[in-house]
Amino acid sequence: MCVFSGCQNVDSGIGVYAGSPDSYVAFSDFFDRIVQEYHSHSPTDKHVSNMDASSLQCPPFRAEEAALIKSTRIRVGRNLADYPLGPGITNEQRDSIMASVLEACNGFEGELAGRFYSLDSMTAEE
Q1: Residues sharing a CB contact under 8 Å with residue 3, sequence separation 6 or more, in sequence order
Q2: What is each CA distance from 70 to 48, 66, 67, 73, in whole angstroms?
Q3: Which residue in 34, 72, 73, 91 is a FRET match for 107, CA 20 to 30 A apart?
Q4: What is the domain class of 1-45 according to CATH?
Q5: Mind listing the pLDDT tens digit for each residue in 8-49?
């Protein structure tokens, strides 16, 4: 299952997905090598998450660069600890995630406010 997507979509880059966090342990010989080669992150390296946006060093875009941005996508698939990763998730769990994400997105205000587009309901024009 880890390589199924890559076999079906040979242009997908790596094409390998862990079905659960435990997959990284159960298949460590496989995943450790991929992570090391792709991300230069060894099994002994420690990842530190800093979710404080004020510590980001993000200079503003120049006007001509900012004009190129039409929309933004926020990906949350691996940020929900109570759910399995993509390959191991049920339709009911996907629906639950969608409801949680929609609730969170509807709470955005100011420059974060926008419209949430579900892939299931988007029109070809959207």
Answers
A1: 15, 16
A2: 31, 9, 8, 10
A3: 91
A4: mainly alpha
A5: 888 877 788 888 888 889 999 999 999 899 889 899 998 788
